[in-house]
Design brief:
This protein has helices spanning about 15-25, 40-50, 65-80, 95-105, 120-130, 145-150, 175-190, 225-230, 245-260, 265-275, 280-300, 325-340, 365-380; strands at about 25-30, 90, 110-115, 130-135, 160-165, 190-195, 220-225, 240, 305, 315-320, 340, 360. By secondary structure, the chain is α/β, with parallel strands linked by helices. The protein has 2 domains: about 5-40 and about 280-380, Aspartate Aminotransferase, domain 1 (Alpha-Beta Complex), CATH 3.90.1150; about 40-275, Type I PLP-dependent aspartate aminotransferase-like (Major domain) (Aspartate Aminotransferase, domain 2), CATH 3.40.640. It is globular and about 55 Å long. The chain starts with 12 loop residues before the first helix and ends with a helix. Bound molecules: 4'-deoxy-4'-aminopyridoxal-5'-phosphate (PMP) and glutamine. Glutamine binds near residues 12, 14, 31, 32 and 168.
């Protein structure tokens, strides 16, 4: 039995592809999990947490240690002070921060502008809260935010817009002009901005701009991030939402009944992660830039049109040279016949067919895994 609200969503594309990939022993460039792990010192901190009594319920809003580490990291990144007691909430990954934001902030019938292609949890957030999504499409090859398209998505019921930068799956890092247009829209129509910044440490071009730092945006922006990508521990599922107390109230109201709190020792480890030396981030970016170049060059050699990502650890390519009807049949063939798993991006679109000619590959993988996938793909051509 599945509620009517969730019937359109079935199982996630990541669950389906991962299962098929395992069944066929495919080289997995599908789901975005690293094949390597984060810093040993961070892992050791979580182990110390387990050993040293961090094993009972932590406070619902998150441990004081992790909330102050989030606030201090925010201060270091933006120069802006946030109050860890009133403006930071620890959640079970960015996924729960998103769910708590939707459930705690919106009423049935409120409209939320989503940018497609989108991370698949966003429309589900709407379904969980009764909010109505209004979609704005990013178009290849540039995948730029179009201010006019944003404006025409606004109605008298619009309450919020959700921006994901760096953006999964296009790899766009929205620039200042695009984000100023979003900020302008929010200020003029009194909208809340939800920004999903889980790929904030994978940026290969100009700086990552945080929407909350633009004029008049701190008071209306909910900034969401997590440990998973930045520290190569996606299984830790520890994230957070930063927002002024008025917006934090809704998030906390939902969070206390969704999960109440997040495993104590993982919060202990996550606080250590956020206190790591700044040099770590530069090394991570260098590692990922090299992996991006390796995969992009390899895919181009094979003859695919590749949209080089400015951020994240994903790359979109146009699979039409291979002659398949759509992304689902292409990816099915890849997994079952070629032995390479990828994600069919049509799962990330509602109003546009553009995903059907695209395929998403993840490069958060050891170089031999990337090379093995490229060798198999080359034989296909
Ligand atoms: N947002 C985006 C854009 C993502 O790609 C992911 C990946 N899982 C998430 C949120 C969820 O992050 P977490 O694993 O911290 O829940
Ligand atoms: N964010 C990951 C990706 O885009 C997937 C996370 C999940 O499986 N829900 O690949």
């Amino acid at each position: 039995m599945v509620s009517q609200r969730l019937q359109p969503f079935g199982s996630t594309i990541f669950t389906e592809i991962s299962a098929l990939s395992r069944e066929h022993g495919a080289t997995d460039l599908g789901q975005g999990y690293p094949t390597f792990e984060g810093p040993e010192s961070v892992k050791q901190a979580a182990i110390d947490g387990l050993r040293n009594g961090w094993n009972q319920y932590p406070p619902s809003m998150g441990t004081a240690e992790l909330r102050s580490a989030v606030a201090d990291r925010w201060q270091a990144d933006t120069g802006v002070t946030v109050d860890p007691d009133r403006e930071v909430t620890v959640t079970s990954g960015a996924t729960e921060a998103l769910a708590a934001t939707f459930i705690g902030t919106f009423d049935p019938g409120d409209e939320v502008i989503l940018i497609e292609p989108y991370y698949d949890a966003y429309p589900v957030g709407c379904a969980l809260s009764g909010a109505v999504p209004r979609f704005v499409t990013l178009h290849a090859p540039d995948f730029r935010l179009d201010p006019e398209a944003l404006e025409s998505a606004v109605s008298s019921r619009t309450r919020a817009i959700l921006i994901n930068t760096p953006h999964n799956p296009t790899g766009r890092v929205f620039d200042r002009a695009e984000l100023e247009a979003v900020a302008d829209l929010c200020r003029r129509h009194d909208l809340v901005a939800i920004t999903d910044e889980v790929y904030e440490r994978m940026v290969y071009v100009s700086d990552h701009i945080r929407l909350a730092t633009l004029d008049g945006m701190a008071e209306r922006t909910i900034t969401i991030s997590s440990i998973g990508k930045s520290f190569s521990f996606t299984g830790w599922k520890t994230g957070w939402a930063i927002a002024v107390p008025e917006l934090t109230a809704g998030i906390r109201a939902a969070h206390q009944f969704l999960t109440f709190t997040v495993p104590n020792a993982m919060q202990y480890g996550s606080a250590a992660a956020l206190r790591i030396d700044d040099s770590y981030y530069g090394e991570l970016t260098d590692l990922y830039r090299a992996k991006r170049d390796r995969l992009v060059e390899g895919l181009r050699r094979i003859g695919l049109e590749v949209y080089e990502p400015q951020g994240t650890y994903f790359v979109l390519a146009d699979h039409r040279p291979f002659g398949f009807e759509d992304d689902v049949s292409f990816v099915h063939h890849l997994i079952t016949e070629v032995g390479v798993a990828a994600i069919p991006p049509s799962a990330f679109y509602s109003i546009s067919d553009e995903g059907k000619r695209l395929v998403r590959f993840a490069f958060c993988k050891d170089d031999p895994v990337i090379d093995e996938a490229l060798e198999k793909l080359a034989e296909m051509g």
